Every structure is written in C-alpha cells, then in structure tokens.
User: Which sequence fits this backbone?
C-alpha cells in the first residue's frame, strides 16, 4: 500500500515480499546469502536468489537493476558459491499432491470422477501420462508379434524336429527345461563371487578342466578350459579382444579361453571359417611364429630388468601381455564333421558349473595354431563326456563355506542334474526350440510390463490409496463395497484439521462432556501446528480430555501402521496434536483480554490470531457434522463456542479491505 501511495526510499522485508508482490525496486540488497529454513541455516537456492534479485530494476524507469550482496564482518562468500547461486539451475518442481482420507471419501460419493482419474491429473503423473502414447504403440506392436510367435509355435507343434532322438516341436518338457535354465542363471549370479574367489576354483580352472558354459543361445553347453585370459581392451581391427597385462582394477574381471560344443548356428558375421589353403595357412602361421619369436625375445630382455612376470601354465595363473594371441579372431565358430564347436574368450560369470572331469588338451595347438587334428581330438573328448552326466565339484572341494552361497550352490547343482535327465538335453535342435520359447517368454513379459504401466495400478500413489481404503474400511467409514457410511459422511465435513482424528473424536464423544470453553480449547490442538516450549496449565477435566485424545491419536496411528502405511503412532500423535495454545484458547473463550492471553505463551500474536480464526471455521464444520448426525447438543455447543471466541481484535476487519 505504501509503495503505491508514496515514494519509499528504503524497505526492510523478508523474502516473502518478493513472492508475487508487484513492487519492483531500483536496488536489491542481500544482508546475507544464508537463511533459516525452519530446521537449520543453509545457503539460498538459486531459484530463491533469482526471485528476490529479479525485483531490481523498475520497468519503464530503470535501464539497469542493481543487486548488492553484503559481507558482514568481512566474510566474503567464495567465488564458487556465488557462481552456483547466480548461474545455478532452478529448483525442480515436485508435486506436493497427497491423498487424504476425506478426498477419497468425497470421490467415492460421486460417480463422475474416480480416484484414479484424479491421480492421473496430478502433476506427479504428468511425465508418465505423456509417455502413455509411446507405450500404447509399443504394446500394440508387441501384442502383434506375440500372436505371430504363438501361431508359429502352434503350427510346428507335434512335428518331428529331425534329430536322432526323435524329439518333436512343442514338447512341454522344453518349457520345463527353460524354467530350470532361468533358475540356474539366477542362482549363478548369487554364488558366482563365492565360487570364483574360493581356493578350490582357482586351482580347478586350469587347462583341460571341463566346465558347463552358458552358450550363445542360453542353453548350457560343455566346454574345456584352454588357458586363462586377461582383462580385455576395446576391440582393434575387428578382433574380439586385445590382451594386456592386468592392472589392479582388472583382478576381479577373470576371463577364460575355452573350446565349447556348439549346437545351432553362430552369429552370421562370426561364422566365416578361413578358406585359405593348407599351404597358405602354414606360411601365415610360420610368419606369425617368427614375428612372435622376435617380440617374445624383446619381452624376455625387458623381463630381465623388471623381474619375472606371471606366466600361463598348468597352475592356472591369470594371463599377461606375454601370451601369444589366438590364431583367429574370437569368437570363432566352426565344425568338425557334424559336430559344431566354438573358440571363445568368456568371462567367469558365464561358467555355470565346474566339473570333476579333465581332458588332456594341447592348448597351444588348439588356440594359437588352430590345428584341426588337435581340435578334433578335443571335440571328441568333450563328446565322450556327454555319455554320462557331468559331476560337479562340491562346495567342500571348492573350499567355500558361506552359508547362503552353499545353499544356493547346492540348489543350482540339483537343477543342473535335473536338466541332464531331460530327453531334449542333448537334442541338436534344442537351441532352436529354446530360442523360440525364450523369445515368446521375454516378449510376453514385456507386454505384461507395458500393460501394467498403462494401467491404473502403475500410478505412483495407487499403493497409498489402497492402504488408506483399507484403513477406512476397517474403521467403518466405508464398507467392503466402498459405499460411504455415516462416519464417512461426517469425515467429508472436516477440512480444517486431520479428518481421521477429528472424526474419531466426534464419534468417541470426547466433546460431549465438556463445556463450550473446554471443547473449543480441546479442538485447538488439531489446529495449532507450531512449536512452543510452554506447558499449558489446564483444569483437571480438560487435562483428562487431552489425555484421552492422545490415546485416541496413538490408536489411529497404530491402525494405519497395521494397514501398511509407513506411520509411527508416536510421530503421528505428535504431528496432529499440539496443545501449545490450549490454555490460551480456553482463557480467550472465558473472556480474558488479548493482552493477557499473550502473556501465557511465547507464540507470536499473529499465530494466536490465525489459530483462533481457523477455530471458528472448524466450529462451523463440526456444527455441520452434528446436524448430519442429528446431535443437537453438539450443534448448540459448537454454536456457543463460536460466539465465545468471535470477539474483539481477533475478528476485527482488515485495514487492507476496510473503507476509511
């Protein structure tokens, strides 16, 4: 008002003055860039600074607005702090929409708008609702593809797959086999660290050890360890990996060179087998060996000065930069006769089981020279291992004792044993059938996920809604069919306080035995929400009523906790009940002057006035509730209480709106 009527030279104000008031200034001065936010002192946020500093400069009068930040006691803020304050990003808007009991009950009483529709229109769901269109298109595409895959599987069901074991497509046991594979992979992630760090595994994973490997198709395949690998660097020139000496960060990334049996086709880009003649292959290998020999000589000369590095051998030491590279880029898929195999560099996470079996294998001939005879012997040895179920090393042999890991390891080995008993376990066409089932399962899971995201159950506050509905049902506000009862209709009338506790107070009769002065003083505990250190001095009857209300509040908190809401009964009681102005309101209702009641508390006068004004509003709400219940005694009591507090300066007309 003063800014509009007359020129004001200096105005001292809080930051509230800058929040939407049309009162620009030539210069804005900050006494400090720190503030108390009600809990502790902190630096102003960038958005708060911009809002206040933006007042500097009057439209049409000033070309430049000046902002000054004072430095009391020569404590100049740091440059980085000022830079963040001035150029930082604005605070992200967060939705403060929260479900309340009376909101739920009110929405249940109408048919035109549901709680779900209200939640969808909240700011918290804005981004999720915008993404709905894209989710809908993905869902329709996924459903069409799922129908095609299901129709394809149905069309091939019952047809023989052409393998020697006489399997047919669509056998139910392949579905069961898939479930076991998924369970094994899940358990492997749980026990991997314990197994691979055990002394037994470090000794067992030496060249020639037979392991079960998670293959390209997901089906477990037997493999033989050729040698240990080192941590990979990014591929160069189309190769899979480039070996280097392991650093301290690489010790947990163990890799192995293996030769694995492989059913089905490999990746198209990786399936090319060298077509050079035997003579050309020998010449290439000879040149490579000579070059490698010269490089190894340089390495040996360097090692003389630096000391011996770990070397690959039968002891299973992890690889170093002195290892000769594989003869072909990995992964390499090929076949010997009708049996497919793959040379791979795999992480230890892909090992599903370490077996007791070992093969005599020449890793150099297989990996570094790709000698076909050595490869054929190794593949034949792996084939012979399939005649009997592969027996895995026990946790005692691997020497790890973690209780959870041992239990998961034993369950995993049991699943692997069950998988070996399936007729389809050794079927050459298993990867094809497995891939179809895996694709269908993954697509179905994706479709279910999209359906859930587009449903009402995916709303952020839907779990909170269900828990609050359960509270209302158990406390008698709505029935099992979500039909609003009398208690719910009364709750709809209360908007000035915690509606659950307020309704319980009315139906428990805590206001019935009190006089109007005591009743309005008791209701002030629901309205007043500030902190005060003063303990009220109350009459015995009013003090007993306060104790009953505390007990009732704890009971309400316990019931909400039982229904799943994350509420502490004691915290709930302290949050909704504050008796700091109970004595003040009681004395005011008895006719005590305003100056005298201000001496009873340390609460500011403005808070006292605001609380009493809101109490008058609550009296009207309780009167409406009493009329709805047919309780004339409570109605008259609230009417009298409203008349008692509605007097003097508390209800004087505002200077801003009154006429001169």
Assistant:
């Amino acid at each position: 008002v003063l800014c509009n009527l007359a020129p004001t030279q200096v105005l001292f104000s809080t930051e509230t003055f800058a929040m939407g008031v049309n009162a620009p200034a030539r210069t804005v001065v900050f006494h400090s860039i720190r503030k108390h936010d009600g809990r502790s002192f902190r630096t102003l946020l960038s958005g708060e600074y911009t809002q206040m500093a933006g007042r500097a400069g009057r439209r049409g009068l000033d070309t430049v607005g000046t902002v000054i930040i004072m430095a009391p006691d020569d404590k100049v803020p740091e440059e980085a702090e000022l830079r963040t304050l001035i150029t930082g990003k604005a605070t992200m808007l967060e939705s403060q929409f929260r479900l309340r009991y009376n909101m739920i009950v009110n929405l249940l009483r109408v048919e035109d708008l549901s709680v779900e529709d209200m939640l969808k229109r909240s700011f918290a769901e804005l981004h999720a609702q915008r993404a709905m269109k894209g989710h809908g298109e993905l869902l329709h595409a996924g459903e069409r593809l799922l129908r095609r895959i299901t129709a394809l599987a149905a069309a091939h069901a019952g047809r023989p797959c052409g393998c020697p074991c006489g399997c047919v497509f669509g056998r139910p046991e392949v579905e069961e086999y898939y479930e076991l594979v998924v369970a094994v992979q899940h358990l492997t992630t749980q026990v991997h660290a314990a197994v691979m760090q055990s002394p037994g595994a470090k000794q067992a994973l030496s060249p020639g050890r037979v392991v079960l490997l998670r293959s390209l198709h997901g089906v477990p395949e037997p493999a033989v360890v050729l040698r240990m690998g080192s941590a990979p660097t990014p591929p160069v020139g189309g190769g899979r990996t480039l070996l280097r000496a392991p650093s301290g960060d690489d010790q947990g990334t163990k890799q192995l060179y293996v030769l694995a049996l492989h059913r089905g086709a490999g990746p198209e880009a990786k399936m090319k087998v060298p077509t050079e003649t035997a003579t050309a292959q020998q010449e290439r290998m000879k040149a490579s060996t000579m070059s490698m020999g010269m490089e190894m000589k340089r390495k040996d000369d360097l090692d003389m000065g630096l000391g011996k590095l770990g070397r690959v051998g039968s002891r299973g030491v992890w690889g170093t930069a002195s290892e000769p590279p594989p003869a072909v880029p990995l992964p390499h898929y090929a076949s010997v006769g009708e049996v497919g195999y793959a040379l791979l560099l795999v992480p230890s996470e892909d090992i599903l089981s370490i077996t007791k079996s070992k093969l005599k294998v020449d890793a150099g001939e297989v990996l570094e020279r790709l000698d076909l005879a050595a490869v054929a012997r190794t593949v034949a040895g792996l084939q012979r291992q399939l005649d009997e179920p592969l027996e895995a090393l026990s946790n005692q042999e691997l020497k790890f004792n973690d209780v959870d890991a041992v239990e998961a390891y034993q369950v995993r080995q049991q699943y692997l044993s069950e998988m070996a008993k399936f007729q389809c376990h050794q079927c050459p066409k298993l990867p094809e059938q497995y891939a179809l089932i895996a694709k269908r399962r993954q697509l179905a899971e994706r479709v279910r996920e999209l359906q859930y995201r587009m449903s009402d159950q995916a709303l952020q506050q839907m779990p909170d809604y269900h828990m609050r509905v359960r509270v209302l049902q158990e406390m008698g506000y709505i029935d099992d069919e979500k039909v609003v009862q009398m208690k719910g209709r009364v709750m709809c009338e209360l908007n000035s306080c915690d509606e659950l506790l307020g309704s319980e107070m009315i139906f428990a009769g805590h206001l019935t035995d009190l006089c109007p002065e005591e009743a309005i003083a008791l209701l002030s505990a629901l309205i007043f929400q500030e902190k005060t250190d003063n303990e009220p001095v109350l009459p015995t009857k009013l003090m007993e009523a306060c104790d009953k209300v505390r007990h009732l509040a704890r009971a309400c908190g316990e019931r909400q906790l039982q229904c799943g809401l994350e509420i502490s009964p004691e915290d709930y009681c302290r949050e909704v009940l504050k008796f700091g102005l109970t004595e003040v309101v009681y004395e005011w209702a008895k006719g005590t002057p305003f100056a005298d009641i201000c001496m009873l508390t340390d609460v500011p006068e403005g808070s006292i006035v605001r609380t009493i004004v809101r109490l008058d509003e609550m009296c009207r709400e309780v009167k409406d509730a009493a009329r709805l219940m047919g309780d004339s005694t409570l109605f008259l009591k609230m009417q009298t209480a409203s008349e008692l507090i509605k007097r003097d300066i508390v209800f004087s007309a505002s200077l801003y709106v009154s006429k001169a």
User: Anything to note?
Assistant: DSSP finds 25 helices and ten strands in the chain. Strands lie at 27-30, 34-36, 41-43, 66-69, 209-214, 220-229, 255-261, 332-336, 339-347, 351-358.
